[in-house]
Hints:
The structure is a single chain. By secondary structure, this protein is α/β, with parallel strands linked by helices. It folds into two domains: 2-58 and 212-422, Adenylosuccinate Synthetase, Chain A, domain 3 (Alpha-Beta Complex), CATH 3.90.170.10; 103-197, Adenylosuccinate Synthetase, subunit A, domain 2 (Orthogonal Bundle), CATH 1.10.300. It contains twelve helices and 18 strands. It has helices spanning 15-22, 74-86, 107-119, 131-139, 152-172, 183-196, 203-212, 246-251, 284-292, 311-321, 360-364, 391-404; strands at residues 2-7, 28-31, 40-44, 47-51, 63-66, 71-72, 96-98, 103-104, 217-224, 260-266, 268-271, 305-310, 325-329, 339-348, 351-353, 367-374, 408-412, 420-422. Strands 7-5-2-9-1-10-13-17-18 form a nine-stranded mixed beta sheet, with helices on both faces. A hairpin with a 2-residue loop joins β14 and β15. α3 runs parallel beside α5. The protein is globular and about 70 Å long. It starts with a strand and ends in a 19-residue tail after the last strand.
Amino acid sequence: xxxxxxxxxxxxxxxxxxxxxxxxxxxxxxxxxxxxxxxxxxxxxxxxxxxxxxxxxxxxxxxxxxxxxxxxxxxxxxxxxxxxxxxxxxxxxxxxxxxxxxxxxxxxxxxxxxxxxxxxxxxxxxxxxxxxxxxxxxxxxxxxxxxxxxxxxxxxxxxxxxxxxxxxxxxxxxxxxxxxxxxxxxxxxxxxxxxxxxxxxxxxxxxxxxxxxxxxxxxxxxxxxxxxxxxxxxxxxxxxxxxxxxxxxxxxxxxxxxxxxxxxxxxxxxxxxxxxxxxxxxxxxxxxxxxxxxxxxxxxxxxxxxxxxxxxxxxxxxxxxxxxxxxxxxxxxxxxxxxxxxxxxxxxxxxxxxxxxxxxxxxxxxxxxxxxxxxxxxxxxxxxxxxxxxxxxxxxxxxxxxxxxxxxxxxxxxxxxxxxxxxxxxxxxxxxxxxxxxxxx
Length: 441
């Protein structure tokens, strides 16, 4: 079995918790794209873990792999490994591996990212982690890979070829090239390379061999589908492909191996940084979502923009990923609101449209059309059975299923691992929710 799990919105949908929850049923969890610009927060009892590079499956003892589609910050990775070991999480080459073909995020990538973001009049809102420049060097074939850190002569040969041009470019961008990459930093990278060499593994071979042996593999994406570098809200996107198909290229697994795809959907919408967010709320409801949902970035600590759930955007994510099931997260955050709303369509230039326009500039001009219903006041955190949920919250869940025609398999009602409701995807739905005429509830 080869399952791919991705975020269906702009990231921050709660993938860390859900991957941690599902990982016990899998032999391998593998990360297939992105860098340490992504962050997964997992709460286990009194412990909170924040991971940026290592798949959260490591917390339950599942083998965790980082594929060659990832761009790797060695300093972040070693900090995470040390953090896990200091907190009693067992990590060794038997249960953790990194593909040596993963590109390294170099200090000059981070410097160029910060300079670019500062200079732009219309800022994207990047994490300034050097991700774009690391991926650019991969495409230009000017990358340094993890495997290069295993060989001092090869590393310095590549570095000496690349560094003069990087220093020249940083100088032209207004930076100080003389402070770039002192020799001690190169020595630190080589030292980390030696520490990581034991973890090196051909991830494509490992996964394909495991699948042939009948093992189960969960491919974990970072960010969300609407941040995909091709299909997302350009230019306000990340620098990698975040959709399910990228799991095949990022890990080296043929598409015929994929058995199912899981999409994570927050019960409302958030995004970090700039770009279109049609349902954004700048009122007390938006404040409620932010504060109750603790909507602050794992990586940057930045406050996330919040709004009502966007069904047209979810339909696009379903097309992009081919989801076979959805997981609805943070339903509990809506508790206490007088009204719950869904964006069921847009108005653009006086016309109703049920699907996002192709161009981000047009999406920016879309006016959301809402269906609404009364809210609920009952706390959801202790509920473990779908039928114990308030009726209006069940209606909320079933309407998403019916209008999107994809079943919801889990509902998260709190940050803890056990604050999750497993749904029978074959259960009988309430016939009051009619997606054909789009009348809510």
